[in-house]
Design a protein that fits this description.
The complex is a heterodimer. Helices cover 75% and strands 0% of the residues of chain A. Chain A has helices spanning 2-5, 12-31, 34-50, 61-79, 89-96, 102-121, 124-135, 140-146, 151-173. Classes of the chains: A mainly alpha, B mainly alpha.
Chain lengths: 174, 307
């Protein structure tokens, strides 16, 4: 990224190849919509170009990327105040398909769909820490930097998020 | 470690992100606490289930769209290098400086217009307010201009160039009644002594207009014998007729007697003499000693011839 900052804009392609999946999955989990998430991925990379001078080189590039992604997300949420997280349940139905042991798979997929929905019902803050730690596999220390908070605060929030998720998930399951 | 301390650490424990010391203490607690074991089981289940939540692949258009955006951005940067201190950047800044200058120019123009209007209004105002004052000024100016013209005329009339002298003479028309004695004197002198016929003719024309003044009339009469050019002689004779100047009869007759007088001028003068003394009966009875009697016979004869 430092080379991008120095004016080697073509290097951005490398960063795109390395990080766009992670970024997409973060945004997808946060929003629950694939199409919007793709648009926002584009937005984040555009901001990286535009604000590349703000990248100091201290700390990891990932942290900076999630920082920008959160800003993009916040802008998006502000613009679409009524849009809430909504799971593309239809997507799951498509993926199940037919074939042998369809029942078993169906059962598993239903579980996953339930969890996905449960995730969608979490508060945005709790959802965020869960996604960052579970899906993006960031350490608490990194999450703390992304969220501009302390590691202890992240720890507490992850715990609360897990507890909330379990409650919702179990309610959906039953 | 008690349960309240253990439970927040469970996700980290599952992730194996815990510090070794914490890890050991947590496991020690778990071994003797069924509640926390159950909690761990549930958390792990959800955690693992979360891992199974599929993330759809970004669609195939994301990649080309990104590279298109990158190319567009590169072009944008190339056209307007924000951080670079290159020549293009300098031009950009210069243009940015000039853009408000155009607005400034417009404002300046409008300002000038307003000033012009105000000045026009201000200059108009006093004129209407004080017409008497202005007329006085105008009269003073007119006098000044006439004086200027006189000086010009007097200066030009001695110019070696005939054209300039002609111009000087033409000023007399514009002088009108302002022509003073000095001017008349100069004009008469020109009429009598100027070497150029055209100038003398023009002078004669100018003087004829001033002939209301006695001095001018007198001068014209006195100029008669001094003229040598047939053209001026004829013109002068015409002027005399026009003015009905009887004092010119004698010099005209004398002129008629001059040897080598132009034939056309001769007949012209004879005509003039006739109109100047229409049916004057004095002619036959005049004394022979008088020049006049001597000359009277000729018009009579001329008249007799005509009859």
């Amino acid at each position: 990224m430092l080379r991008v900052k120095a004016g080697d804009v073509d290097r951005m392609g490398l960063l795109f190849e390395r990080y766009h999946r992670k970024l997409f999955s973060f945004l997808y989990h946060m929003l629950g919509r694939a199409d919007t998430s793709e648009d926002l991925v584009q937005n984040v990379f555009y901001r990286m170009l535009k604000y590349r001078h703000t990248y100091t080189g201290e700390g990891e590039f990932r942290t900076w990327m999630y920082h920008l992604a959160r800003n993009v997300l916040a802008d998006h949420v502000k613009k679409n105040r009524h849009a809430t997280h909504h799971a593309d349940v239809a997507d799951f139905a498509e993926k199940i398909g037919g074939g042998a042991r369809a029942d078993e798979r169906m059962e598993h997929e239903q579980e996953v769909a339930a969890l996905h929905r449960a995730l969608g019902r979490l508060s945005a803050d709790n959802r965020e820490v869960l996604i960052l730690s579970r899906f993006q596999e960031l350490k608490y220390e990194e999450i703390a930097r992304v969220l501009n908070t302390t590691e202890g605060a992240v720890k507490v929030r992850v715990h609360r998020a897990m507890h909330e998720l379990k409650t919702i998930y179990l309610r959906i399951e039953n | 470690m008690n349960c309240e301390q253990v439970q927040p650490l469970l996700p980290e424990y599952i992730h194996k992100h815990l510090a070794p010391a914490d890890h050991a203490r947590l496991e020690a607690h778990l071994a003797q606490c069924p509640v926390c074991q159950e909690e761990l089981r549930a958390t792990r289940q959800v955690w693992q289930a979360l891992g199974a939540v599929p993330v759809p692949e970004p669609s195939e258009k994301l990649r080309p769209e990104f590279y298109a955006m990158l190319a567009a951005y590169k072009q944008e940067v190339h056209e307007a290098p924000g951080s670079g201190s290159s020549l293009a950047g300098f031009w950009q800044q210069l243009r940015a400086l000039l853009a408000p200058a155009q607005a400034l120019r417009l404002a300046y123009g409008l300002g000038l217009l307003v000033v012009g209007l105000a000045a026009g209004y201000w200059l108009n105002g006093p004129k209407v307010a004080a017409p008497a004052d202005q007329q006085q000024q105008l009269a003073a100016l007119t006098t000044q201009v006439e004086q200027m013209r006189q000086v010009m005329l007097l200066a030009l009339i001695e110019n070696p160039s005939a054209t300039e002298r002609l111009r000087a003479v033409s000023y007399t028309k514009e002088l009108g009644e302002g022509a003073n004695e000095r001017v008349v004197e100069a004009l008469l002198s020109t009429l009598n002594h100027d070497e150029n016929v055209n100038v003398r003719l023009a002078t004669l024309e100018a003087l004829a207009q001033l002939a209301d003044a006695p001095s001018v009339r007198m001068g014209l009469v006195q100029a008669l014998p001094q003229q040598e050019s047939p053209l001026v002689q004829a013109a002068l004779a015409d002027v005399m007729v026009l003015l009905q100047e009887r004092r010119s009869v004698l010099p005209l007759r004398r002129l008629l007697r001059q040897p080598g007088l132009n034939q056309a001028v001769k007949s012209k003068i004879e005509e003039s003499l006739k109109s100047l003394s229409p049916g004057r009966p004095a002619a036959p009875s005049t004394t022979p000693s008088s020049h006049e009697t001597l000359h009277y016979s000729r018009p009579d004869r001329g008249a007799g011839l005509a009859v």
